[in-house]
Amino acid sequence: MRTPSRLLAISSLGLALAGTADARTRPHYGGELRVESATPNSSIGTIAADFVTESLTSIDSDGQVQPLLAERWDSQNGGRRWQFWLRTNVRFHDGKVLSAADVTEALNNKRGAPWRTVRANGSTVIVECDDPQLLLPETLALRQFAIFSTDTSGVLIGTGPFRLTGAPGTSIKLVAFDDYWQGRTYLDSVGVTGGRGLRDQWLDLSVARAEIVEVPAEQIRRAQQERIRTLLSRNMELIALVPSTNSQALQDARMRQAISAAVDRTSLLNVIFQKQGEVATGILPNWMTGYDFLFSSGQNLALARDLRNQVKQNGTITISYESGDSIQQLLAERVVLNARDAGIAMQSGPRGVREVDLELVRTSLASTNSGLALHQITASFLPDETEAVAADLNSIYADERELLSSARIIPLLYVPRAFGGSPRLRNWTLGPDGLPAIAQIWMEDRR
Amino acid sequence: MNLRQRLLITFALVVVIVVALVAYAVSLRTRSAFEQVDQERTGALVAEFRSGFQSQGRDVVRKLERIARTDDLQRLALESSQGADMSLYLQQAATMAQEYGLDYFEILDANGNIISSAQWPARFGYRENLPAGVPSDAFLKKVELPDGFALGLMGLRPVRVGDATVYLEGGKRLDLRLLETLSLPPGMYAWLYRVNGTTFSPSDVLGERAEAAIGLASLVNMAVQSGSEHSAVVQLSSEKFDRATVQAIPLKDDSGAVAAVLLAGTSRRPLLELQKNIRTTALAVAAVGILLGILISVWIAARFSRPIENLAAASREVATGNWDVQVESHTGDELQELADSFNSMTRDLMEQRDRLVQTERVAAWRELARRLAHELKNPLFPLQLTVENLNRARSLPASEFDEIFDESTATLLAEIHNLKTIIGRFSDFSKMPRPQLQPTSLNDLVQQVATLHQAQIRDTPNLITLNVEFDRNLREIPLDPDLMHRVVSNLFLNAIDAMPEGGTLTLRTRDRDEHVRLEIADTGVGLTPEERERIFTPYYTTKKHGTGLGLAVVQSIVSDHHGSISVVSERGQGTTFIIDLPKRASDSAAVSAQTGATV
């Protein structure tokens, strides 16, 4: 065969190949996404709930509230009465259409809810509060106020893009919900396996037994060195010291301030987390508030010693960390060393072993809304001192300043959330909450 | 103490002393032997420990050298010199420590700042105190840990890449594992004390029987303070035999300070138990010996001392005057010879006494006959002359015959009266009446005699002073007042007769337990020993006149009263007659009848 035929054949072959290649890079349905986590199997239901349930609203990456199950809303009486109009095309996983009654039932008797009553009013939901709740829509975006029910076997029934199969507590499988109101996801299913150690997760990723694995902040550089495809969120995890309200040794604010001044946060960030993150001078990260520079963060041993000498220390202060968490143990021991340099007698130990004066905590921001985030942090660690959610930045700043000056919470670092992903993943991003936006993912076929 | 008791005590003492000496010698020798063995065993244990210590040290150094040659460390050293971010190596030390089997491992930069620490990861950036120079051998070091200190056998090795240097400091924990490598024979102990501060703490003692730690305190303190080896006997528990000889060997760290003390102990239980057995055996032997001594002494008593005691008792009998004593002995040896000789002696003494008594009796009869003849001759001679005179006067005229007849009859009657008097005295002596006892005051009786003879005292040519010393507490005693009056009177008059030149006559009464004493003393010429011997013999007298029966009568009356009389006298010193009379009529045995003279 001479050139034209050959050319035609070659061209056809090339076009076919190009088409195939193009087809492979275009989003397509199918595939099971396998996600692994170190979270114990007994607790991975909370991870899966993110993909199974939805709230009336959501918060975007800028901290702005967006409609979700509720299309719009309105408030009266200075934020004491709110009315939410529901979307009409939303179905639960069992096929039932979302109604105001369902929302009412889901929201009434919620723990920590700022409202007094929730009632249906036609296709709208009326929420009434005793105090003004100017950020009620933002509050409703919190995971704890998701709209769901459970069936007779205890399986979660939500409106999310995936539905849950299998009993909670085992390796969870999420199956794409065909009637999802925003359209079926590309993925057919998601399998979430908990209790996997980090080395095992990375090994599974490398041999294509998993598509998404965890990358702790302190391992980000190592993951990158090992050529793991890594996605980092903004600095979403707060590592802080929380003095116990029952601690005699830390009753005096000067001792708490002395501890705060003694800690070398820069070393913690540079060495333990290899500069992945930022030094936390405020309780909220700088990307959220922008006024981080107003607070001091550097180690000041002279100030620490001076404050410590003003207070009579009774006994050795104990700092606790999460049992089995080597990074937390390392952080706690470093804090102990810094404290001893300032003349403060301190010792560390895993939680539950002895009475605790100071807790080392690691928590994720509950929301990208600064007021809500601060409120949630305060509610978690100082439930008796929690006030209403601050709506404006000045109030947020004032609340944060007051907490920092009294050293009721001693922020140390903000670190990002990170995940390692398979090269097959496409359209893989992290949501505003720092978790993988699984609903948007599609996977390349295996080669 | 008699012979048997002395023999028993002597024998027992000999046995006890010999057994004690032997037991002491054996005990001493045993202890010496044990201590020598203990020293050898302890020395071997210490040598084994040192060998194990050095071996582990060499192992540590070898591991550090191997780590230093790895690519990871070479790269780390290079990056360190280039100012690279060392935070990536934060966990490197822990990984390598686990890989190479080290308990402690740190990677230090050229200035000693910690890059990575296996035992205390949080100490990154802190400076470690490096010893001056790089020691070639392993050394002891107190390793800082989050919860305190521990003792480590450490090594230090540099990693040099060009101009870049990092240091590797690592080692093994000095703990029970090192002690467990020692092969401890039964009865031997090993402890390791980790020096942690200036005060001894039992919790820093590692090893078996850690509960014995309290007993090691002073020994450990000595070793730590002096820095040199010491040994002592240590009580390990409250049980008496649970003691050990412990040697403390201080182990010094790189700075020369005592970081740990190795304690090697050997139980003294076998020695103590053996000593106890020796003592028990010695006591048993001594007890058996004493029992044997008792048996032997009993045998000796039967065989030897009883015959000697019998002889001694017989001798005492002889000494008291009972010569009619015979000693039985059938030993067939010298003791029997002695007994036979004694018996022969007493028989001879009896015979001689009998002969002496017979002789004295004969002598007394001769003396009596002489006295009688002498007494009777005096009145008989004038009787004879008078009768001869009458016979001659028969031829004279009646008027001259009548005158001579009247004179002669008067003389005859007078001399016949003398004869009757003499014979009456003899008759009186031969038939002394039995005393009629009645309660009588001796003081009053003596006073009566003194009053009666006061005139005679006054009539003496030279002054005689009467001295009366009566015991006013004397009660009445059973006496025959008449006979006792006679006794006192006789002695009173004899005392006057004994002081022709004057003197002092003393009458004294005393209350003496079961009897009453009467003393009649003069300061006259006194008696010779011969006179004292014979003064109570009938018809013996020192006077020119007298029958010689006065004191014999006195003795007889006193004897009839169940009393006793004795005389104390020396020539020229005077004479004292002592009469003891019973207070009660039935106490005749309380007052022995003393015969003869006493001084």
- Integer-rounded radius of gyration of chain A: 25 Å
Biggest sheet of chain B: strands side by side, in what order? 2-1-5-4-3
- Summarize the main sheet of chain A: 7 strands, mixed
**Helix and strand sequence of chain B:** HHHEEEEEHEEHEEEHHHEHHEEHEEHHEE
- What is the rounded distance between the termini of chain A? 33 Å
CATH class of the largest domain in chain A: Alpha Beta
Quickly describe the structure.
By secondary structure, chain A is α+β, with helices and mostly antiparallel strands. Helices cover 30% and strands 23% of the residues of chain A. Chain A is globular, with a radius of gyration of 25 Å.
What this model shows, in words?
Chain A is built from 13 helices and 21 strands. Chain A has helices at about 5-25, 45-50, 100-105, 135-140, 200-205, 220-225, 255-260, 265-270, 285-290, 300-310, 325-340, 370-380, 395-405, and strands at about 30-35, 55-60, 65, 70-75, 80-85, 115-120, 125-130, 150, 155, 160-165, 170-175, 190-195, 210-215, 230-245, 280, 315-320, 345-350, 360-365, 410-420, 425, 440-445. In chain A, the strands form six sheets. In chain A, strands 13, 14, 15, 16, 17, 18 and 19 form a seven-stranded mixed β-sheet that branches. Chain A is globular. Chain B has about 600 residues and is an alpha+beta fold. Chain B has helices at about 5-70, 70-80, 90-100, 175-180, 215-225, 270-320, 335-395, 400-430, 440-450, 455-460, 480-495, 530-535, 550-560, and strands spanning about 105-110, 115, 140-145, 150-160, 165-175, 190-195, 205, 230-235, 245-250, 260-265, 440, 465-470, 475-480, 505-510, 515-520, 565-570, 575-580. In chain B, strands 2-1-5-4-3 form a five-stranded antiparallel β-sheet. In chain B, strand 14 and strand 15 form a beta hairpin. Chain B starts with a helix and ends in a 17-residue tail after the last strand. Chains A and B meet through helix 6, helix 8 and helix 11 of A and loops of B.
